[in-house]
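Example 3.
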Amino acid sequence: MGRRFDVGVGVFGALLLANAAVSTVLYRGDLKIRDEEFTFPSAQVVFEVALSLVLCLWAALKIPGSFLPILSDAKENRVTMFPANLDFMVFNHRGKLFPPKFVEAEFS
Amino acid sequence: MVGASEERELERLEKQVEEGGGGVVEYLSLVRKLKVRRSNIVAKHGLQLLNQASARSKLGSDLWTVYEQVAIACMDCHALDSAKKCINALDSKFPDSMRVGRLEGMWYEAKGSWQKAEKVYSNLLSENPSDTVAHKRRIAMAKAQGNMTVAVEGLNKYLETFMADYDAWRELADIYTSLQMYKQAGFCFEELILSQPTNALYHLGYAELLYTMGGIDNLRTARKYYASTIELSGGKNMRALYGVCLCGAAINQARGRGRTEEESQELVSLAASVLVKKYKEKASSKAGLVSSILDKYKQLAVA
């Protein structure tokens, strides 16, 4: 439900914004007919814009996923050990004295 | 870098592979990705995998990487015949490859034929002087022969050219530490911390170095780095928690009677309480023992 709901909220917010835009254009058209000066958009438009801001903000924060920690190593996946420095690997170690037994390589 | 979840995954796959439950290809791929040294298991199961023609054909383009991986693991386990066969297979596929050339040099190293290995690397470097791995192998060769002075000189020269190579800085820090040249090792750790300031393990390494050097100023700096390790690792690094306790006790002893300012003891008691809590969670039978030791440190830190 989560992601779909968030996307739905976002879409609803965008539609509300579009509705506010259309309402503003119609309102200004009305004003022209009534021969009045435009001073302030109607209360309905202001309310719609404010609501769509909240809804779009909700969707923009929710849809991409949860925030990552600022400290990249903290929390769950912290760095626990270094990779072996394989470029400087040395074969002359004490394990050489007791080599383990393996199957013979049968390819060439 | 190996994270906590990758480590868990590696352990799970390793157990599965050792019990014969399959997943060898995934295991080999994870070992390559995490760059861990598990030569014994890689050589054992890698050779079994490569011996089966059907498994080889299933590997697809990864086949040659697996050959290289198994060759290096075999050299590490001193199974030189098997390693040679892997190298031969690679050589017949890529006759003029420098990467295969390096493997041949490494094979001579594993055999103990230092002069032949040196010749291989010299040839590779004359063809391509910026071949970093060949440079590093020469340094590793000096180290393998116990010639630490040459290894240090080589690494310093190498780092003048390739100063962004942090593996080399880490190696130099290790060598200096093994030679007890702590001041020089400290410089390397500073470089490493500058390169990756959020990596807790570099902070921890530097803190341990400073603690080893001793002296009140070094101990105070060590405590700061232990504290930053705790912050960066989300309070889960036990070495750092112990380090803070030890530093608290050591600073107080180093100050002796000529104390001029009051040191804060909050950090020590907090670290000690976290340690005891962790022991109670994971190994409750040892919790009593640990808390008695930590109480001693706390007393030393206050006294």
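The two ends of chain B are 41 Å apart (CA to CA). The beta strands of chain B are 2-3.
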